[in-house]
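Field notebook, page 288. I keep forgetting to write these up properly, so this time I am using the form the group agreed on. The chain and the ligand, guanine, are recorded exactly as supplied. Prediction of the bound pose follows.
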Amino acid sequence: MRILNGKETAESIKLEIAEEVKARLAAGKSRPHLAAVLVGENGASLTYVNAKVKACAKVGFESTLVKLDADISEEELLKEVHKLNDDPSIHGFIVQLPLPDHIDDQRIIEAVSPEKDVDGFHPLNVGRMVLGLPCFLPATPYGILQLLEKNDIQTEGKHCLVLGRSNIVGSPMSILLARNSSPGNCTVTLAHSRTKDIKSLSLQADIIIAAVGRPHFLTADMVKEGAVIVDVGIHRIEDKTKKSGYRLIGDVDFDEVASKTEAISPVPGGVGPMTIVALLKNTLQAAG
Ligand code: GUN
């Protein structure tokens, strides 16, 4: 069994990005600049956004964090989005999701200029992705592709089961792994909450991408010997032995599944750091 170490893989890609930044600056080009919009005080979102800002500093990007009150109106938030669209010093930006209930996420996503949409959530980028045209790939699936590639996981001809059909992870992941590309060329099954007998599907899968959002959903009896498993889930569960009072677990019951696999990503330290690196790569691309 091999660990798909996202933390290490992400660090090595960050070194490559930092080199590219140096080369850009030496050539008289601008320093890539990412902005992140955070609405409200959601603890997990704050952690993610802070990690993104920290990663920018690590590779020599400029970053701007725009913190807005949870009770901001949709119109006011749209104004902030337009300001970032119109600010030539900002190459790319993200609006951290989820947004408060009174705000229509889709309306905000569609207001982001597609050229600055480094999350790859705008319908134009999603459409371009589906057609295999140049675009910003959504960060989590893009990070997973990099994790597979950098760890020499062969995907061609493999049966890949994607668990979960979210717009952010499952749906784009299924499209990207089915593409005529490397990584790609998988035979993909996309399973979701209405799928019957997931176990019969998972037992046939060579690669499983678990993105269901349910702690320890994937158990050892559901996994074929020698499968490759990527765990996208991240859940805080109470743990009084930890200083923070909680620990992080994934959608996969790592302790019981790991020994059956050829390779498996841990939580934390698997997909999370790769998602951030994918966002950095998109920002570099946005800077041109
Ligand atoms: N919330 C969970 N994942 C993401 C992401 O990749 N981008 C944004 N903007 N919000 C998220």
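OBSERVATIONS:
- Residues 166 and 211 are 8 Å apart (CA to CA).
- The pocket of guanine is lined by residues 94-97, 119, 139-140, 168, 275 (CB under 6 Å).
FOLLOW-UP: compare against the apo run.
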